[in-house]
Amino acid sequence: MASLLASIVQWLRSLLFSKHLEICVVGLNAAGKTSLVNVLASGQFSAEMVPTVGFNMRKVQSGNTTIKVWDIGGQPRFRNMWERYCRGVSAIVFVVDSAVPLPREGAVQSSGGAGGATTTDPSDPSTSWQVATEELHALVARPMLAGLPLLVLATKNDVKGAASAEDVIRIMRLETIANREVSCYSISSKVQTNIDVTLRWLCARSPAGAR
Protein backbone atom coordinates (compact mmCIF):
# COMPACT_ATOMS: atom_id res chain seq x y z
CA MET A 1 0.00 0.00 0.00
CA ALA A 2 2.79 2.38 0.94
CA SER A 3 4.60 1.68 -2.32
CA LEU A 4 1.40 2.35 -4.28
CA LEU A 5 0.94 5.71 -2.54
CA ALA A 6 4.57 6.57 -3.20
CA SER A 7 4.12 5.77 -6.89
CA ILE A 8 1.02 7.96 -7.08
CA VAL A 9 2.82 10.84 -5.37
CA GLN A 10 5.74 10.47 -7.78
CA TRP A 11 3.39 10.47 -10.75
CA LEU A 12 1.56 13.59 -9.52
CA ARG A 13 4.88 15.31 -8.87
CA SER A 14 6.02 14.54 -12.43
CA LEU A 15 2.84 16.15 -13.76
CA LEU A 16 3.09 19.22 -11.56
CA PHE A 17 6.76 19.92 -12.11
CA SER A 18 7.21 18.80 -15.70
CA LYS A 19 8.23 21.31 -18.34
CA HIS A 20 7.30 21.35 -22.00
CA LEU A 21 8.57 23.60 -24.74
CA GLU A 22 9.03 23.87 -28.48
CA ILE A 23 12.08 25.15 -30.30
CA CYS A 24 12.85 25.69 -33.96
CA VAL A 25 16.30 24.84 -35.35
CA VAL A 26 17.21 26.71 -38.52
CA GLY A 27 20.35 27.62 -40.46
CA LEU A 28 21.92 27.09 -43.86
CA ASN A 29 22.09 23.62 -45.37
CA ALA A 30 24.98 21.43 -44.16
CA ALA A 31 25.48 23.57 -41.05
CA GLY A 32 24.98 20.55 -38.77
CA LYS A 33 21.37 21.05 -37.66
CA THR A 34 20.18 17.46 -37.97
CA SER A 35 23.34 16.08 -36.37
CA LEU A 36 22.72 18.40 -33.43
CA VAL A 37 19.08 17.34 -33.10
CA ASN A 38 20.03 13.65 -33.23
CA VAL A 39 22.63 14.10 -30.50
CA LEU A 40 20.15 16.02 -28.34
CA ALA A 41 17.49 13.34 -28.83
CA SER A 42 19.56 10.15 -28.64
CA GLY A 43 23.13 11.06 -27.77
CA GLN A 44 24.21 9.43 -31.05
CA PHE A 45 26.33 11.09 -33.73
CA SER A 46 26.59 9.84 -37.29
CA ALA A 47 29.09 11.12 -39.86
CA GLU A 48 26.66 10.07 -42.61
CA MET A 49 23.70 12.41 -42.47
CA VAL A 50 20.96 12.84 -45.08
CA PRO A 51 20.07 16.54 -45.58
CA THR A 52 16.69 17.51 -44.18
CA VAL A 53 14.12 18.00 -46.92
CA GLY A 54 11.36 20.28 -45.66
CA PHE A 55 11.25 19.61 -41.94
CA ASN A 56 11.59 16.96 -39.26
CA MET A 57 10.21 16.89 -35.73
CA ARG A 58 11.92 15.14 -32.82
CA LYS A 59 11.24 15.06 -29.09
CA VAL A 60 14.09 15.49 -26.64
CA GLN A 61 13.80 14.46 -22.98
CA SER A 62 16.11 16.11 -20.47
CA GLY A 63 15.24 15.41 -16.85
CA ASN A 64 11.67 16.59 -16.31
CA THR A 65 11.68 18.69 -19.50
CA THR A 66 10.26 17.57 -22.84
CA ILE A 67 11.45 19.58 -25.83
CA LYS A 68 9.64 19.41 -29.15
CA VAL A 69 12.26 20.24 -31.78
CA TRP A 70 11.46 21.40 -35.30
CA ASP A 71 14.42 20.86 -37.65
CA ILE A 72 13.83 22.92 -40.80
CA GLY A 73 15.71 22.46 -44.07
CA GLY A 74 18.31 25.10 -44.87
CA GLN A 75 18.27 25.00 -48.66
CA PRO A 76 17.16 28.30 -50.25
CA ARG A 77 13.75 26.91 -51.25
CA PHE A 78 12.92 26.08 -47.63
CA ARG A 79 14.04 29.30 -45.94
CA ASN A 80 10.67 30.97 -46.43
CA MET A 81 9.28 28.26 -44.11
CA TRP A 82 11.47 29.33 -41.19
CA GLU A 83 9.20 32.10 -39.93
CA ARG A 84 6.10 29.88 -39.99
CA TYR A 85 7.70 27.21 -37.80
CA CYS A 86 9.32 29.76 -35.48
CA ARG A 87 6.00 31.35 -34.55
CA GLY A 88 4.97 30.54 -31.01
CA VAL A 89 8.07 28.54 -30.06
CA SER A 90 9.96 29.06 -26.82
CA ALA A 91 13.25 29.84 -28.58
CA ILE A 92 14.90 30.02 -32.00
CA VAL A 93 18.13 28.08 -32.49
CA PHE A 94 20.23 29.27 -35.43
CA VAL A 95 23.05 26.89 -36.40
CA VAL A 96 26.16 27.97 -38.30
CA ASP A 97 29.12 25.90 -39.51
CA SER A 98 32.13 27.26 -37.65
CA ALA A 99 34.48 25.11 -39.75
CA VAL A 100 33.85 27.32 -42.80
CA PRO A 101 36.81 29.71 -43.23
CA LEU A 102 36.18 33.17 -41.87
CA PRO A 103 35.75 35.98 -44.41
CA ARG A 104 38.92 37.58 -45.69
CA GLU A 105 39.27 41.23 -44.76
CA GLY A 106 37.10 43.17 -47.21
CA ALA A 107 35.97 40.03 -49.06
CA VAL A 108 32.44 40.17 -47.67
CA GLN A 109 30.56 43.40 -47.14
CA SER A 110 27.42 44.02 -45.15
CA SER A 111 24.16 44.77 -46.90
CA GLY A 112 23.67 48.45 -47.45
CA GLY A 113 24.20 51.27 -49.85
CA ALA A 114 22.02 52.00 -52.84
CA GLY A 115 19.27 49.44 -53.09
CA GLY A 116 20.69 47.47 -50.17
CA ALA A 117 22.97 45.49 -52.49
CA THR A 118 25.47 43.01 -51.10
CA THR A 119 28.94 42.60 -52.58
CA THR A 120 30.45 39.13 -52.22
CA ASP A 121 33.09 37.03 -53.92
CA PRO A 122 31.20 33.90 -55.12
CA SER A 123 34.46 31.91 -55.33
CA ASP A 124 35.10 32.45 -51.62
CA PRO A 125 33.48 29.71 -49.44
CA SER A 126 33.40 32.18 -46.57
CA THR A 127 30.57 34.02 -48.30
CA SER A 128 28.27 31.55 -46.55
CA TRP A 129 28.92 33.64 -43.42
CA GLN A 130 27.38 36.60 -45.23
CA VAL A 131 24.37 34.56 -46.35
CA ALA A 132 23.86 33.14 -42.85
CA THR A 133 24.10 36.62 -41.33
CA GLU A 134 21.58 38.08 -43.75
CA GLU A 135 19.14 35.19 -43.26
CA LEU A 136 19.40 35.44 -39.48
CA HIS A 137 18.85 39.19 -39.36
CA ALA A 138 15.94 38.94 -41.81
CA LEU A 139 14.35 36.24 -39.66
CA VAL A 140 14.57 38.06 -36.33
CA ALA A 141 13.26 41.25 -37.97
CA ARG A 142 9.89 39.57 -38.61
CA PRO A 143 7.24 41.18 -36.36
CA MET A 144 5.64 37.83 -35.52
CA LEU A 145 8.93 36.66 -33.97
CA ALA A 146 9.57 39.74 -31.85
CA GLY A 147 11.06 39.02 -28.43
CA LEU A 148 11.72 35.30 -28.94
CA PRO A 149 15.00 34.21 -27.31
CA LEU A 150 17.74 33.44 -29.84
CA LEU A 151 20.52 30.89 -29.43
CA VAL A 152 23.23 30.87 -32.10
CA LEU A 153 25.24 27.65 -32.14
CA ALA A 154 28.57 27.48 -33.95
CA THR A 155 28.90 23.77 -34.71
CA LYS A 156 31.91 21.60 -35.61
CA ASN A 157 34.33 23.25 -33.18
CA ASP A 158 36.25 19.96 -33.20
CA VAL A 159 37.62 20.98 -36.63
CA LYS A 160 41.03 22.66 -36.50
CA GLY A 161 40.74 26.40 -37.14
CA ALA A 162 37.01 26.57 -36.43
CA ALA A 163 35.61 29.99 -35.60
CA SER A 164 35.16 30.78 -31.91
CA ALA A 165 31.96 32.08 -30.34
CA GLU A 166 33.60 35.52 -30.23
CA ASP A 167 34.29 35.31 -33.99
CA VAL A 168 30.66 34.40 -34.65
CA ILE A 169 29.34 37.25 -32.52
CA ARG A 170 31.52 39.69 -34.45
CA ILE A 171 31.01 38.33 -37.98
CA MET A 172 27.24 37.89 -37.61
CA ARG A 173 26.81 41.20 -35.77
CA LEU A 174 24.88 39.58 -32.96
CA GLU A 175 25.42 42.60 -30.70
CA THR A 176 23.14 44.59 -33.02
CA ILE A 177 20.14 42.31 -32.39
CA ALA A 178 18.06 44.13 -29.81
CA ASN A 179 14.87 43.56 -27.79
CA ARG A 180 15.42 39.84 -27.21
CA GLU A 181 17.77 37.53 -25.35
CA VAL A 182 20.70 36.49 -27.55
CA SER A 183 23.25 33.81 -26.64
CA CYS A 184 26.03 32.16 -28.63
CA TYR A 185 27.90 28.92 -27.91
CA SER A 186 30.64 27.05 -29.73
CA ILE A 187 29.72 23.35 -29.86
CA SER A 188 30.55 20.00 -31.43
CA SER A 189 27.94 17.33 -32.03
CA LYS A 190 30.69 14.84 -32.92
CA VAL A 191 32.53 15.01 -29.57
CA GLN A 192 29.52 16.54 -27.75
CA THR A 193 31.27 19.70 -26.59
CA ASN A 194 28.84 22.09 -24.87
CA ILE A 195 25.81 19.92 -25.66
CA ASP A 196 25.04 19.89 -21.93
CA VAL A 197 25.28 23.69 -21.82
CA THR A 198 22.93 23.91 -24.81
CA LEU A 199 20.38 21.64 -23.13
CA ARG A 200 20.47 23.66 -19.92
CA TRP A 201 19.91 26.86 -21.90
CA LEU A 202 16.93 25.34 -23.71
CA CYS A 203 15.35 23.84 -20.59
CA ALA A 204 15.55 27.20 -18.83
CA ARG A 205 13.30 28.73 -21.51
CA SER A 206 10.19 26.78 -20.47
CA PRO A 207 7.78 27.70 -17.67
CA ALA A 208 6.96 24.79 -15.33
CA GLY A 209 3.88 22.89 -16.42
CA ALA A 210 3.51 24.73 -19.73
CA ARG A 211 2.10 22.58 -22.50
From TrEMBL:
Ranges for the region named Disordered are: 106-128
Residues that hold Mg(2+) according to the record: T34, T52
The molecular function terms of the Gene Ontology recorded here are: GTP binding; GTPase activity; metal ion binding
Low complexity bias (residue ranges): 117-128
CDD domains documented for this protein: Arl10_like
Residues binding GTP, per UniProt: G27, L28, N29, A30, A31, G32, K33, T34, G74
Q: Which domain of life is it from?
A: Eukaryota
Protein's GO biological process = protein transport
Keywords of the record = GTP-binding, Hydrolase, Magnesium, Metal-binding, Nucleotide-binding, Signal
Q: Which residues form a coiled coil?
A: none
- Protein family (similarity comment): Belongs to the small GTPase superfamily. Arf family.
What's the protein name? Answer: P-loop containing nucleoside triphosphate hydrolase protein
Q: Which organism is it from?
A: Ceraceosorus guamensis
